[in-house]
Amino acid sequence: MDKKTIFSGVQPSGNITLGNYLGAIKNWVRFQEDYNCIYAMMDMHAITVRQNPQELRKRTLDLLKIYISCGIDPEKSLLFVQSQVSEHAQLAWVLNCYTYMGELSRMTQFKDKSSKHADNINAGLFTYPVLMAADILLYQADFVPVGKDQMQHIEITRDIAERFNSIYCKEGNPVFKVPEGLLAKSGAKVMSLTEPTKKMSKSDENPKAYISVLDDFSVIANKIKSAVTDSEGKIEYRPDDAEKAGINNLITIMAAVTGSTEAKIAEEFCGKGYGDFKKAVAEAVVEEIRPIRERYDELSKSKDYLEQICRSGREGAEKISAKTLGKVYKKLGFLV
Ligand code: TRP
Questions:
Q1: How many CA atoms lie within 13 A of 179 on its CB side?
Q2: Using CA positions, which residue lies closest to atom 6 of ligand 1?
Q3: Contact by Cβ (8 Å): 67, 9
Q4: 144: CA distance to ligand 1 center in Å?
Protein backbone atom coordinates (compact mmCIF):
# COMPACT_ATOMS: atom_id res chain seq x y z
CA MET A 1 0.00 0.00 0.00
CA ASP A 2 2.97 2.24 0.57
CA LYS A 3 4.22 2.16 -2.98
CA LYS A 4 5.27 5.50 -4.46
CA THR A 5 3.46 6.73 -7.55
CA ILE A 6 5.02 7.14 -10.97
CA PHE A 7 3.27 9.13 -13.67
CA SER A 8 4.29 9.58 -17.29
CA GLY A 9 2.99 9.66 -20.81
CA VAL A 10 3.69 10.08 -24.49
CA GLN A 11 1.88 12.19 -27.07
CA PRO A 12 0.23 10.23 -29.89
CA SER A 13 1.61 12.78 -32.33
CA GLY A 14 3.76 10.54 -34.48
CA ASN A 15 5.22 7.09 -34.90
CA ILE A 16 6.56 5.75 -31.64
CA THR A 17 10.28 5.43 -32.17
CA LEU A 18 13.05 3.19 -30.99
CA GLY A 19 14.12 6.23 -28.95
CA ASN A 20 10.76 6.41 -27.15
CA TYR A 21 11.00 2.71 -26.45
CA LEU A 22 14.61 2.49 -25.28
CA GLY A 23 14.61 5.85 -23.55
CA ALA A 24 11.24 5.69 -21.85
CA ILE A 25 8.77 2.84 -22.24
CA LYS A 26 11.30 0.09 -21.54
CA ASN A 27 12.08 1.71 -18.18
CA TRP A 28 8.39 2.14 -17.41
CA VAL A 29 7.94 -1.61 -17.68
CA ARG A 30 10.53 -2.16 -14.94
CA PHE A 31 8.91 0.41 -12.64
CA GLN A 32 5.77 -1.70 -12.48
CA GLU A 33 7.37 -4.03 -9.96
CA ASP A 34 8.07 -1.42 -7.32
CA TYR A 35 5.76 1.49 -8.00
CA ASN A 36 2.18 2.33 -8.46
CA CYS A 37 2.35 3.30 -12.16
CA ILE A 38 0.08 5.54 -14.20
CA TYR A 39 0.79 5.98 -17.90
CA ALA A 40 -1.34 8.12 -20.17
CA MET A 41 -1.77 8.87 -23.84
CA MET A 42 -1.41 12.65 -24.06
CA ASP A 43 -3.73 13.53 -26.91
CA MET A 44 -4.57 16.96 -25.51
CA HIS A 45 -0.93 17.96 -25.72
CA ALA A 46 -0.76 16.65 -29.27
CA ILE A 47 -3.28 19.22 -30.56
CA THR A 48 -0.94 22.12 -29.75
CA VAL A 49 0.32 21.23 -33.23
CA ARG A 50 -2.24 20.59 -36.01
CA GLN A 51 -3.25 16.94 -36.23
CA ASN A 52 -5.31 15.03 -38.71
CA PRO A 53 -8.34 13.72 -36.73
CA GLN A 54 -8.39 10.21 -38.22
CA GLU A 55 -4.69 9.89 -37.68
CA LEU A 56 -4.84 11.18 -34.11
CA ARG A 57 -7.56 8.66 -33.28
CA LYS A 58 -5.57 5.84 -34.82
CA ARG A 59 -2.32 6.88 -33.19
CA THR A 60 -3.90 7.10 -29.76
CA LEU A 61 -5.07 3.50 -30.05
CA ASP A 62 -1.73 2.49 -31.57
CA LEU A 63 0.00 4.00 -28.58
CA LEU A 64 -2.14 1.98 -26.21
CA LYS A 65 -1.30 -1.15 -28.18
CA ILE A 66 2.38 -0.26 -28.09
CA TYR A 67 2.37 0.34 -24.33
CA ILE A 68 0.84 -3.07 -23.78
CA SER A 69 3.03 -4.84 -26.36
CA CYS A 70 6.14 -3.39 -24.77
CA GLY A 71 5.18 -5.00 -21.48
CA ILE A 72 3.02 -2.49 -19.65
CA ASP A 73 0.45 -4.65 -17.97
CA PRO A 74 -3.01 -3.08 -17.61
CA GLU A 75 -3.56 -5.29 -14.58
CA LYS A 76 -0.63 -3.65 -12.83
CA SER A 77 -0.61 -0.12 -14.23
CA LEU A 78 -3.32 2.43 -14.88
CA LEU A 79 -3.50 3.25 -18.59
CA PHE A 80 -5.77 5.99 -19.84
CA VAL A 81 -6.42 8.59 -22.52
CA GLN A 82 -5.90 12.16 -21.28
CA SER A 83 -8.87 13.72 -23.10
CA GLN A 84 -11.25 11.16 -21.56
CA VAL A 85 -10.57 12.46 -18.07
CA SER A 86 -11.99 15.98 -17.92
CA GLU A 87 -10.18 16.85 -14.69
CA HIS A 88 -7.03 17.49 -16.75
CA ALA A 89 -8.58 20.41 -18.58
CA GLN A 90 -10.28 21.62 -15.41
CA LEU A 91 -7.15 21.69 -13.28
CA ALA A 92 -5.12 23.15 -16.14
CA TRP A 93 -7.44 26.17 -16.21
CA VAL A 94 -7.01 26.70 -12.49
CA LEU A 95 -3.24 26.37 -12.67
CA ASN A 96 -3.13 28.84 -15.56
CA CYS A 97 -4.14 31.42 -12.99
CA TYR A 98 -1.13 30.48 -10.83
CA THR A 99 1.48 30.51 -13.57
CA TYR A 100 3.26 33.61 -14.84
CA MET A 101 3.70 34.65 -18.45
CA GLY A 102 7.38 35.24 -17.67
CA GLU A 103 7.88 31.67 -16.50
CA LEU A 104 6.22 30.24 -19.58
CA SER A 105 8.15 32.41 -21.98
CA ARG A 106 11.40 30.97 -20.65
CA MET A 107 10.48 27.42 -21.68
CA THR A 108 12.91 26.23 -24.32
CA GLN A 109 10.38 23.84 -25.85
CA PHE A 110 8.00 26.74 -26.44
CA LYS A 111 10.76 28.73 -28.11
CA ASP A 112 11.72 25.73 -30.28
CA LYS A 113 8.19 24.81 -31.27
CA SER A 114 7.13 28.35 -32.00
CA SER A 115 10.04 28.82 -34.34
CA LYS A 116 9.22 25.48 -36.01
CA HIS A 117 5.50 26.25 -36.33
CA ALA A 118 5.70 29.99 -36.88
CA ASP A 119 2.33 29.97 -38.65
CA ASN A 120 0.55 28.52 -35.60
CA ILE A 121 1.91 29.93 -32.36
CA ASN A 122 -1.29 29.25 -30.44
CA ALA A 123 -1.96 29.90 -26.77
CA GLY A 124 -2.04 26.14 -26.11
CA LEU A 125 1.56 25.86 -27.19
CA PHE A 126 2.38 28.55 -24.65
CA THR A 127 0.42 27.01 -21.76
CA TYR A 128 1.42 23.44 -22.63
CA PRO A 129 3.53 23.13 -19.44
CA VAL A 130 0.51 24.09 -17.32
CA LEU A 131 -1.53 21.19 -18.74
CA MET A 132 1.45 18.95 -18.07
CA ALA A 133 1.60 20.20 -14.48
CA ALA A 134 -2.11 19.39 -14.14
CA ASP A 135 -1.52 15.86 -15.49
CA ILE A 136 1.11 15.17 -12.88
CA LEU A 137 -0.37 16.96 -9.88
CA LEU A 138 -3.82 15.37 -10.21
CA TYR A 139 -2.31 11.97 -9.38
CA GLN A 140 -0.09 13.12 -6.49
CA ALA A 141 2.83 11.59 -8.36
CA ASP A 142 6.13 11.13 -6.54
CA PHE A 143 8.23 10.58 -9.64
CA VAL A 144 7.92 11.52 -13.29
CA PRO A 145 10.29 9.71 -15.64
CA VAL A 146 11.06 12.01 -18.56
CA GLY A 147 13.78 12.82 -21.04
CA LYS A 148 16.18 15.68 -20.46
CA ASP A 149 14.17 17.94 -22.77
CA GLN A 150 11.17 17.70 -20.43
CA MET A 151 13.03 18.45 -17.19
CA GLN A 152 12.25 22.14 -17.44
CA HIS A 153 8.56 21.23 -17.46
CA ILE A 154 9.00 19.23 -14.26
CA GLU A 155 10.70 22.22 -12.66
CA ILE A 156 7.80 24.50 -13.50
CA THR A 157 5.37 21.83 -12.24
CA ARG A 158 7.19 21.86 -8.90
CA ASP A 159 7.12 25.66 -8.78
CA ILE A 160 3.39 25.76 -9.51
CA ALA A 161 2.66 23.08 -6.87
CA GLU A 162 4.73 24.85 -4.23
CA ARG A 163 3.13 28.18 -5.06
CA PHE A 164 -0.38 26.80 -4.74
CA ASN A 165 0.43 24.94 -1.53
CA SER A 166 2.04 28.00 0.02
CA ILE A 167 -0.96 30.20 -0.73
CA TYR A 168 -3.72 27.79 0.35
CA CYS A 169 -2.16 25.29 2.71
CA LYS A 170 -0.26 27.39 5.21
CA GLU A 171 -1.45 25.17 8.05
CA GLY A 172 0.24 22.16 6.42
CA ASN A 173 -1.58 19.33 4.69
CA PRO A 174 -0.58 20.40 1.16
CA VAL A 175 -3.06 19.86 -1.67
CA PHE A 176 -0.33 18.87 -4.11
CA LYS A 177 2.57 16.51 -3.75
CA VAL A 178 5.67 18.17 -5.20
CA PRO A 179 6.94 15.63 -7.76
CA GLU A 180 10.47 14.80 -8.78
CA GLY A 181 11.69 14.27 -12.32
CA LEU A 182 13.40 10.98 -13.00
CA LEU A 183 15.97 11.16 -15.75
CA ALA A 184 16.36 7.97 -17.76
CA LYS A 185 19.64 6.18 -17.10
CA SER A 186 22.45 7.03 -19.48
CA GLY A 187 22.85 4.97 -22.60
CA ALA A 188 19.22 5.23 -23.53
CA LYS A 189 19.30 8.55 -25.33
CA VAL A 190 18.82 7.70 -28.98
CA MET A 191 19.72 10.31 -31.59
CA SER A 192 18.48 10.97 -35.12
CA LEU A 193 19.96 8.68 -37.76
CA THR A 194 20.34 11.50 -40.26
CA GLU A 195 21.44 14.31 -37.91
CA PRO A 196 22.94 12.45 -34.97
CA THR A 197 23.51 15.55 -32.85
CA LYS A 198 19.69 15.89 -32.57
CA LYS A 199 17.43 13.66 -30.50
CA MET A 200 15.52 10.98 -32.47
CA SER A 201 12.08 12.52 -32.85
CA LYS A 202 8.83 10.92 -33.91
CA SER A 203 7.74 14.18 -35.49
CA ASP A 204 10.82 14.52 -37.72
CA GLU A 205 9.72 15.26 -41.31
CA ASN A 206 12.34 12.86 -42.59
CA PRO A 207 11.27 9.28 -41.79
CA LYS A 208 14.87 8.14 -42.33
CA ALA A 209 15.80 10.03 -39.17
CA TYR A 210 13.92 7.68 -36.88
CA ILE A 211 13.04 4.02 -36.50
CA SER A 212 9.40 3.46 -35.72
CA VAL A 213 8.61 0.39 -33.66
CA LEU A 214 5.97 -0.27 -36.33
CA ASP A 215 8.36 -0.07 -39.31
CA ASP A 216 8.76 -3.17 -41.46
CA PHE A 217 11.91 -5.02 -40.56
CA SER A 218 13.42 -4.41 -44.00
CA VAL A 219 12.75 -0.69 -43.59
CA ILE A 220 14.52 -0.74 -40.24
CA ALA A 221 17.54 -2.43 -41.78
CA ASN A 222 17.64 0.11 -44.60
CA LYS A 223 17.38 3.07 -42.27
CA ILE A 224 20.26 1.81 -40.17
CA LYS A 225 22.26 1.06 -43.30
CA SER A 226 21.92 4.64 -44.46
CA ALA A 227 22.53 6.19 -41.02
CA VAL A 228 25.02 9.05 -41.08
CA THR A 229 28.50 8.14 -39.84
CA ASP A 230 31.92 9.69 -40.49
CA SER A 231 34.83 9.13 -42.81
CA GLU A 232 37.29 8.03 -40.15
CA GLY A 233 36.17 4.41 -40.43
CA LYS A 234 36.83 3.54 -36.79
CA ILE A 235 34.28 2.03 -34.44
CA GLU A 236 35.16 3.97 -31.32
CA TYR A 237 32.86 5.40 -28.68
CA ARG A 238 33.78 9.04 -28.12
CA PRO A 239 30.70 10.67 -26.59
CA ASP A 240 32.22 14.16 -26.51
CA ASP A 241 33.34 14.16 -30.12
CA ALA A 242 30.63 15.61 -32.38
CA GLU A 243 32.37 14.13 -35.43
CA LYS A 244 31.64 10.69 -33.97
CA ALA A 245 27.96 11.41 -33.21
CA GLY A 246 26.66 8.91 -35.77
CA ILE A 247 28.84 6.02 -34.64
CA ASN A 248 28.32 6.90 -30.97
CA ASN A 249 24.58 6.68 -31.58
CA LEU A 250 24.77 3.28 -33.27
CA ILE A 251 26.94 2.01 -30.43
CA THR A 252 24.42 3.33 -27.90
CA ILE A 253 21.55 1.65 -29.73
CA MET A 254 23.45 -1.62 -29.89
CA ALA A 255 24.30 -1.42 -26.18
CA ALA A 256 20.70 -0.66 -25.24
CA VAL A 257 19.10 -3.44 -27.28
CA THR A 258 21.62 -6.08 -26.26
CA GLY A 259 21.75 -5.02 -22.61
CA SER A 260 25.48 -4.34 -22.93
CA THR A 261 27.57 -1.20 -22.45
CA GLU A 262 28.98 1.21 -25.02
CA ALA A 263 32.53 0.30 -24.01
CA LYS A 264 31.93 -3.41 -24.54
CA ILE A 265 30.26 -2.89 -27.91
CA ALA A 266 33.10 -0.65 -29.10
CA GLU A 267 35.61 -3.28 -28.05
CA GLU A 268 33.68 -6.10 -29.68
CA PHE A 269 33.50 -4.32 -33.05
CA CYS A 270 36.92 -2.70 -32.93
CA GLY A 271 38.59 -3.04 -36.32
CA LYS A 272 35.37 -4.01 -38.14
CA GLY A 273 33.93 -1.97 -40.98
CA TYR A 274 30.91 0.30 -40.64
CA GLY A 275 28.94 -1.87 -43.08
CA ASP A 276 29.31 -4.99 -40.94
CA PHE A 277 28.59 -3.07 -37.78
CA LYS A 278 25.40 -1.57 -39.22
CA LYS A 279 24.24 -5.01 -40.25
CA ALA A 280 24.77 -6.30 -36.73
CA VAL A 281 22.94 -3.31 -35.23
CA ALA A 282 20.02 -3.81 -37.61
CA GLU A 283 19.73 -7.47 -36.69
CA ALA A 284 19.83 -6.72 -32.97
CA VAL A 285 17.21 -3.99 -33.28
CA VAL A 286 14.90 -6.26 -35.28
CA GLU A 287 15.27 -9.01 -32.66
CA GLU A 288 14.35 -6.54 -29.94
CA ILE A 289 11.30 -5.29 -31.82
CA ARG A 290 10.06 -8.64 -33.13
CA PRO A 291 8.24 -9.84 -29.98
CA ILE A 292 6.72 -6.38 -29.50
CA ARG A 293 5.38 -6.52 -33.04
CA GLU A 294 3.95 -9.97 -32.58
CA ARG A 295 2.00 -8.85 -29.53
CA TYR A 296 0.98 -5.66 -31.31
CA ASP A 297 -0.46 -7.61 -34.25
CA GLU A 298 -2.28 -9.89 -31.84
CA LEU A 299 -3.79 -6.90 -29.99
CA SER A 300 -4.92 -5.35 -33.26
CA LYS A 301 -7.48 -8.16 -33.45
CA SER A 302 -8.86 -7.45 -29.97
CA LYS A 303 -10.83 -4.26 -30.28
CA ASP A 304 -13.14 -5.14 -27.40
CA TYR A 305 -10.25 -5.76 -25.09
CA LEU A 306 -8.70 -2.38 -25.94
CA GLU A 307 -11.99 -0.60 -25.40
CA GLN A 308 -12.34 -2.24 -22.06
CA ILE A 309 -8.81 -1.14 -21.03
CA CYS A 310 -9.69 2.45 -22.00
CA ARG A 311 -12.93 2.31 -20.08
CA SER A 312 -11.48 0.93 -16.88
CA GLY A 313 -8.43 3.21 -17.18
CA ARG A 314 -10.69 6.18 -17.47
CA GLU A 315 -12.69 5.16 -14.40
CA GLY A 316 -9.57 4.58 -12.35
CA ALA A 317 -8.06 7.90 -13.42
CA GLU A 318 -11.27 9.80 -12.73
CA LYS A 319 -11.46 8.43 -9.23
CA ILE A 320 -7.99 9.69 -8.30
CA SER A 321 -8.11 12.97 -10.16
CA ALA A 322 -11.59 13.97 -8.95
CA LYS A 323 -10.34 13.73 -5.41
CA THR A 324 -7.47 16.17 -6.05
CA LEU A 325 -9.64 18.53 -8.09
CA GLY A 326 -12.25 18.55 -5.32
CA LYS A 327 -9.64 19.67 -2.80
CA VAL A 328 -8.45 22.40 -5.17
CA TYR A 329 -11.96 23.72 -5.81
CA LYS A 330 -12.65 23.86 -2.09
CA LYS A 331 -9.47 25.81 -1.42
CA LEU A 332 -10.28 28.27 -4.18
CA GLY A 333 -13.74 29.01 -2.85
CA PHE A 334 -15.68 27.37 -5.66
CA LEU A 335 -19.07 26.05 -4.56
CA VAL A 336 -18.70 22.30 -4.22
N1 TRP B 1 5.34 16.65 -22.71
C2 TRP B 1 5.66 15.25 -22.70
C3 TRP B 1 6.49 14.92 -23.93
O4 TRP B 1 6.32 15.52 -24.96
C5 TRP B 1 4.41 14.41 -22.68
C6 TRP B 1 3.63 14.63 -21.43
C7 TRP B 1 2.46 15.31 -21.29
C8 TRP B 1 4.01 14.18 -20.14
N9 TRP B 1 2.07 15.32 -19.99
C10 TRP B 1 2.98 14.64 -19.25
C11 TRP B 1 5.09 13.45 -19.65
C12 TRP B 1 3.05 14.38 -17.89
C13 TRP B 1 5.16 13.20 -18.27
C14 TRP B 1 4.13 13.66 -17.43
O15 TRP B 1 7.29 14.02 -23.87
A1: 31
A2: 9
A3: no
A4: 9
Helix axes 151-168, 303-332, angle to 10 degrees: 40
For the residues of 312-334, what is the DSSP string, one character each? HHHHHHHHHHHHHHHHHHHHHT-
Instruction: State the Cα–Cα distance between residues 63 and 58, nearest whole angstrom.
Output: 9
Over its length of 336 residues, how does the chain's per-residue pLDDT go in tens digits? Answer: 689 999 999 999 988 999 999 989 999 999 999 999 999 999 999 999 999 999 999 999 999 999 999 999 999 999 999 999 999 999 999 999 999 999 999 999 999 999 988 999 999 999 999 999 999 999 999 999 998 889 999 999 999 999 999 999 988 899 999 999 998 764 468 999 999 999 999 888 999 999 999 999 999 999 999 999 999 999 999 999 999 999 999 999 999 999 999 999 999 999 999 999 999 999 999 999 999 999 999 999 999 999 999 999 999 999 999 999 999 999 999 998
| Helices 274-299 + 245-258 axis angle, to 10 | 50
The pTM of this model reads 0.93
Substitution candidate for ligand 1 out of 150, 156, 189, 201 with most atoms within 8 A of CB: 150
Distances (CA, A) of 223 to 228, 243, 293: 10, 20, 18
Q: Is 202 a catalytic residue?
A: yes
Distance 165 CA to ligand 1 centre (A): 22
Contact 251, 267 (CB under 8 A): no
Supply the residue whose CA is at minimum distance from atom 13 of ligand 1: 8
Q: Map residue 205 onto helix, strand or coil.
A: coil
Residue ranges around ligand 1 (CB below 6 Å): 7-9, 11, 42, 45, 132, 135-136, 144, 146, 150
Using CA atoms, how far apart are residues 304 and 332, in angstroms rounded to an integer?
41
Write down the catalytic residue from 4, 26, 58, 113.
Answer: 113
Of the listed 189, 202, 244, 278, which one is catalytic? Answer: 202
Residue to substitute in 8, 63, 83, 140 for testing ligand 1 pocket (most ligand atoms within 8 angstroms of CB): 8
Largest Cα–Cα separation, the chain: 72
